[in-house]
Amino acid sequence: MGNQKQRAKKPDAIRLLGLILVVAGIVLIGYYLYIHYAGRLHSRLNLDPSPALTVPAEPGEPPQEDAILYPTDRLFVTDERAAYGDGEMTLRIPRLGLDAPVLAGTGPEVLQRGVGLYEYAQLPGEGNRNVSIAGHRDIYGAEFYYLDQLQEGDACYLDYGGREYTYIYQDTAIVEPDDWGPVYCREYGCLTLTSCDPVGTSERRIVVTARRVDSAQKEKEADAAQS
């Protein structure tokens, strides 16, 4: 009788051990999937591109040493952009008579005060950075009211980090308001300016693209260093 009880207990113990092993396996698999997908999500939102990748120089342009090649197939936020503060950069467009500080963000409360830098934009520099800026055309400061009048040969300037970056007008496009394509990086460094279109509506967006051609130390800072 005693032997029969012992034999009955052994299968129960084996089943319990098997159940414990199955649960442990499920926990380990779940933990692995969490780490894997959490890591992928983090890398998409806070991407630090590898400086080992370089952008080929355009014909007639000097090679860009240590240039960063950013992804062109998705939106992302760089640490540099996340740390950007209001007015650290200035946008100048002679054709529009515009000389304005660039604020951080493109929310309604930000654009009431001036032009704003998209969350997914990059800051000026080497490589294929897309400095994307939004502004109003008909309300508040209406900084981009005449945005549609930019034409071939017009220059735009960004003053940032003690340097002046020069961009030359490339093209104008009209897109749907939910089209994020213009904010994506291109194969070259550029400045993207966006606003509502037609004036007085939000039916579509006007997108002006200017290509980066040069950067130089600001003269006033260079003169100060020499004195």
Using brief descriptors, characterize the structure shown.
227 residues, alpha+beta, Sortase, Chain: A, 8-stranded mixed beta barrel, 4 helices, transmembrane, hydrolase, transmembrane helix, membrane
CATH topology of the largest domain: Sortase, Chain: A
Amount of helix: 25-40%
Q: Give the helix/strand class.
A: alpha+beta
Q: So, the CATH homologous superfamily of the largest domain?
A: Sortase
Quickly give the CATH architecture of the largest domain. Beta Barrel
Shape designation: elongated
Name of the top-level CATH class of the largest domain: Mainly Beta
Q: Strand tally, please?
A: 8
Mean pLDDT score, rounded?
Answer: 82
* Cα distance spanning the termini: 105 Å
Oligomer: single chain
Gyration radius, rounded: 27 Å
Main sheet strand line-up: 1-2-3-4-7-8-6-5
The ordered H/E elements are HHEEHEEEEEEH
Number of domains: 2
Strand content: 25-35%
Task: Count helical runs.
Answer: 4
Report the biggest beta sheet as strand number plus sense, adding barrel if it closes: 8 strands, mixed, barrel
Point out poorly predicted stretches: 34-65
Quick rundown:
InterPro entries: Sortase, Sortase_dom-sf, Sortase_E. This protein has 227 residues and is of the alpha+beta class.
